[in-house]
Amino acid sequence: MDSVVSDAAAFGVPPLVDTDGPVQPWQTDPTRAPVATKIVVAGGFGVGKTTLVTAVSEITPLQTEALMTEASEETDDLTATPGKLTTTVAMDFGRLTLDDDLVLYLFGTPGQQRFWFMWDDLVRGAIGAVVLADTRRLKDCWPALDYFESCGLPYVVAVNHFDGSEVFEAEDVREALTIPAHIPVMIMDARRRISAIETLLSLVGHALDETPE
Ligand SMILES: Nc1nc2c(ncn2[C@@H]2O[C@H](COP(=O)(O)OP(=O)(O)OP(=O)(O)O)[C@@H](O)[C@H]2O)c(=O)[nH]1
Ligand SMILES: [Mg+2]
Q1: Residues 64-122: pLDDT tens digits?
Q2: b/e map of 142-180 (b: 16 or more CB within 10 Å)?
Q3: Per its UniProt record, what Pfam families does this chain match (predicted)?
């Protein structure tokens, strides 16, 4: 028996296609089954998680940004990112097709500590995580590193150099965070699509090395 997809095509039912973003080859060809993978983008508060998902997503990303008010002055330190007006209160969601039939579904975590309880749900089924780090606030990424170490999820570390921050080599950051040699650490600009995609590719490669089946 033919697949449900080709039966639907025989009855003139259009294939399932997003109305948003460019149509990908795997969306219109019923013979192709893309490999869908889930990736988590984590790290401390205001380190560039939403920026990364937005920069690479080929669909309009789902965002759950809330305006920051004086009420959070005591808990949210904006010294490093004075221009930041909003914060993620649930998650970011975006999609990126690599090599035509590898589809990455990207889930950005909320950075504020009071929303960390959501991480357990966000990481379920993920193949790996990108941990973003800002060299001015390196300790802010420790909770994410600890979290992925303890749950055994493969991760890479991506250093997001903010304007005016001192520029470090990836190996300096590895040493400062005591990241084991087999885990990729790279310098990235979350605002630049190509740079962010390189990070995601590195994670996919690392996740395959760690869990080849
Ligand atoms: N210079 C520079 N600025 C960046 C970079 N990435 C993000 N930003 C800026 O940093 C600010 C914070 O970015 P967000 O993407 O909202 O950070 P976030 O990690 O999602 O923040 P929360 O969800 O609140 O934890 C924004 O104003 C971005 O424009 C970068 O690579 N370089
Ligand atoms: Mg965010």
Answers
A1: 999 887 777 777 777 778 888 899 998 999 999 987 789 999 999 998 888 888 899 99
A2: ebbbebbeeeebbbbbbbbbbeeeeebebeebbeebebe
A3: ATP_bind_1 (PF03029)
Does residue 110's CB lie within 6 angstroms of at least one atom of ligand 1? yes
Cα 146 to Cα 121: distance, rounded to the nearest angstrom: 17
CA of 53 to the centre of ligand 2 (A): 9
Entry pTM: 0.85
User: Domain 2-10+30-210, what fold?
Assistant: Rossmann fold (3.40.50)
CB of 115 closer than 8 Å to CB of 90: yes
Non-local (6+) Cβ contacts of 12 within 8 A are none
Does the C-beta of 163 come closer than 6 Å to ligand 1? yes
Residue nearest ligand 1's atom 7 by CA: 48
